[in-house]
Amino acid sequence: MGWSNWFKKKNVSPPTKTNKEASDQGPPMHLLALDPRSGAGPNAVRTTEEITESTILSLPAVTTNGRISFLSAGKAEDYNRLVAEVQSRVSHLPKDSACYVCGAVSVMDPRISTRYLIFEVRSFSAPVPELEQIFLLLTNLRTVGDDNWIKTEKYLQSEPGRSWINRFIDGLKQRINWTQLVESALESHGEGIKNLQ
Q: Rounded to two decimals, what is the model's pTM?
C-alpha cells in the first residue's frame, strides 16, 4: 500500500496499563476521523438504507487493537449537528493547539429506537503524526469488508500500530476521565440507554 510506518514506540499520553493490552474496563472508545491538524470533521461515509432508500451517514473509526468500526451518524441533519458541536468544542480548546482528536462511543436508546454518540474532543500542543496516519486511513474507507477495509484493518492491527493505538486510547481515557464522562451522559438521558459500541 506504500504506507510509511508512522507509528512510534513513544507514548503521546501516559498509558493506564503498561504491560497488557488496552484496558477493557469501562466503556469502549473509538477514535473518529477528525482532521488532527485543523479539528475539521469528523469525516463521514454516505450509505443508502435499502428499506427506506434514505441516506444514512456513518463515521469511520478505530478502536482498541486496531479494529475498525463504522458508528452511525444518522441522517444528514444529525451529522450536521454533530459537526457543529465538534467544531464548537474545538473552538474552546487552546488556540495554540497543534493536534486534535475525538473519542466517541455509540449508544442505543431502545425507547426511541435510535443511536446517538457520546464524544469528547481534546487537543495537544504538538503534532501527533500517528493520528494523521489514522485520519488518512479512515478517510479512505467507504465500505465495510471491502479490500481496502481489510487491508487497512490488517495494517492497524499489526505492530507497532496496534500497541500505539491501545496505549493512546488508554491514555486519552485516563486524561478525560472517560468512564465518568460516559456515565454522566447516560444519566442525563435516563435509564433506558444500553448497548454501548
A: 0.83
